[in-house]
Amino acid sequence: MRSKRQLFVLIASLCVFSGSSRGAENEPSMAELWEMVQQQQAQIEELRQQLQVTRSVTQTVEIQTLENSERIEAVGEVLDAPTSTGRGSWADRTTIGGYGEMLYNDETSNSSTRELDIQRFVIFLNHQFSDSLRFNSELEVEHSFISDDARAPGAVELEQAYLEWDYTRNHSVLAGMHLVPIGIMNETHEPNTFYGVERNRIESRIIPTTYRVNGVKFAGQLGRGFSYDLDIHEGLFFESGHGGELAIRDSRQSGARAEMDGLGYTGRLRYTGMQGLELGLTLHYQSDMTQDASTRGNTGRDGVFDSFGNSVDDLDGLLTEAHIVYQSGPWGLRALWAEWDIDNSIESVANNDFSNNGLGRESQYGYYIEPSYRFNSDFGVFYRFERTNERAASNVLAANDSATSRSLVGANYWLADNVVLKMDYQFEDDDKDRDLDGFNVGIGWQF
């Protein structure tokens, strides 16, 4: 109101001054002056509203400009990221790594064995196509020397080569050669990740680590610490004419022109919802371990026969595995049980000189327990007790006294997180009195 009065007085004064110069006859009346004031006030109000609208528009434009700048910057960061939708450079999305180990074994049974060996040399080659699609592979050289010479024990093997796709959040599918999701060591077996110079015998003979197959695997998280794996893949392939090839380990096809008449099916459930704890349960089913009595001569497969030369087929088998891995401060514990239940017609299998037969092989089992203590980040000690029996269903002829117990005590010294020195001493009690005692030393690395 005060501003209105001041404006009225100002206009009135101007009018009076103007009137004094033009004559009294031109002087406006009070009503005319008030009308002029009202008109001026209306014009001022209109200008004020226009100014307010202009300021609001200006502020909106400034906010939108800032938001657009932030979006452009965020898009630029995504485009520059090495794993984004394939737009990063090839080198940024490709990784190379590997692991290996050199072992010295000084063991004594009926005769002494002193052996130094580059047991494994493995190269990883992986590539990220997009945030949800990747390729992983491993190429392995065993025992360093490969040739036609019988003295060359080495081999070159493709251990993994598969595509993996995250088809939805927390769930994926892979296809290609991969490691079967079973046990503790089959998927994670780099030398810096376990105690002992050699891998335990249960996860070598009963679970044929490393057990690699061609197939398709689904995996994912179920929530509350639970995860699953469902795997459909090639099966094992028993033979009866080549020495020990009725053994589980010798029956791996390893993805090499693998017979697919008898498939393998693996399902695993794991719990990792408590810090330091892993619980695992696996069922592994083989529909026909003879691959429908295949003899595939072009791959050197001779099939499975009884002592009269009759073909044996329809040998199905079920492997049950359970394990625990627990770490609480410096204390650690690993324990695992695995057992095969195979069709009892395997008892009839034998080649013509009975040197390889199926007696007792319908039941095969193994277990171990391994407590450990890590004094610091560099040094740890362990004890492991193992027991295996690959002919547990019978006690006649070759199946008699088929169990073996073994105790190991040793230490690991980590030169770095992924480089380890190992030493252990083993005491073996073989039911056939073929005890293998002695010590082992090794060095292993991963990068």
Number of domains: 2
> How do the helices and strands follow one another from N- to C-terminus?
HHEEEEEHEEEEEEEEEEE
In which order are the strands of the major sheet placed?
1-2-3-4-5-6-7-8-9-10-11-12-13-14-15-16
Q: What would you call the structural class?
A: alpha+beta
Oligomer: single chain
Architecture (CATH level 2) name of the largest domain = Beta Barrel
- CATH fold call of the largest domain: Porin
How many strands? 16
> Mean pLDDT, as a whole number?
85
Number of helices: 3
The percentage helix is 10-25%
Low-confidence stretches: 7-24
Major sheet summary line: 16 strands, antiparallel, barrel
CATH top-level class of the largest domain: Mainly Beta
Quick one: CATH superfamily of the largest domain? Porin
Strand-residue proportion: 35-45%
Give me the Rg, rounded: 39 Å
Task: Please supply descriptive tags for the structure shown above.
alpha+beta; 447 residues; 16-stranded antiparallel barrel; Porin
Structure description:
- The protein is an alpha+beta fold.
- It folds into two domains: 2-78, no CATH class; 93-446, Porin (Beta Barrel), CATH 2.40.160.10.
- The protein contains three helices and 16 strands.
- α1 packs across α2.
- The N and C termini lie far apart (83 Å).
